[in-house]
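In this supplementary section we document a worked example of the pipeline. Step one takes a protein sequence of length 307 as its only input; no multiple sequence alignment statistics are reported here. Step two produces a three-dimensional model, which step three serialises into structure tokens for compact storage. The input and output of this example are shown verbatim.
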Amino acid sequence: MAQFVDLKDGYLDDVFHVFDAHNHPIVLVEECALMWMGVPANPTDYDFLIRSPQLDTILTALLASGAWEITPQSLPERAADQCVNSVPRLRRTSAGGQLTISLWPENIYFLSVDADSSSNGGDNDDENGGIVPVPNVVAWNFSLVQESLDPGPSVSGSITRSRLEARGTRVVPKVLAQSENTSTIYIPTILRMLEALLDQDRQHGMHTQAPPRSNRVSGHISSLIRALFLEQSHQRDKLLPYISDRNHTSLEARLAGFKRRRMSVLEGLGGGGINGGAMGGQKKERRSGSISQPLKPDFKYRSGYQS
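The serialised model returned by step three reads:
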């Protein structure tokens, strides 16, 4: 895991300036996006979706600045995927080389930067033609910004951004990726993200039975199902009718076969995060994923950590 790096507002200003100079939207994928979809995640990179025809130009501009250099994809679940190995990964030449970004071309992520026919319609895919604005590249506490997919507080606890902020939970880090709010940051809608992941899983020949740590795609899909309770009928009906024919059977099978493990936890343990409270409490049984846990990122520099 990356070491602590003291960052200030605007730690990705130079990256956003390159995107802006090439008229390229800022669209997050992977764990950075999943955090804004209500999924507990611990990003190691800042992951951006890039128009395939513009990849070389943007990569060249970042390298020419002297602030970035190429570095290999290093995580086991990424390095095991030959397609991911062709995703350019860069690390900042300062900050001890601990700040890294990955540039995912559309043809590898099976997702278009721009609104297109992959947006199937429906209430859950109409935000800005398939993208949703978010306030930063990472969340301080994971939260659901596409609130039409809220499972409901009785099911999942408070995971929507509006509920979390209403109860005083910090969602947006104190230190932000851009010093001025000049560039809008987006994530794909959850429907489009699921479509892309299912397409990757099929086209890359990954096995859905593989452990999530060795199969990042299946891990992401399972995380979305778990966090949003998509296997439950009231949630499944919000998405499944809008999934494309090519992915409908696969997602339906995953939802039907998804099982939640029961585990014992101490109620009240949490340390002041999403459902933090005083230490101690009574033992209670819950299904995994039914209560949001506080994000305690090891990547403190990525969250804009301030004590």
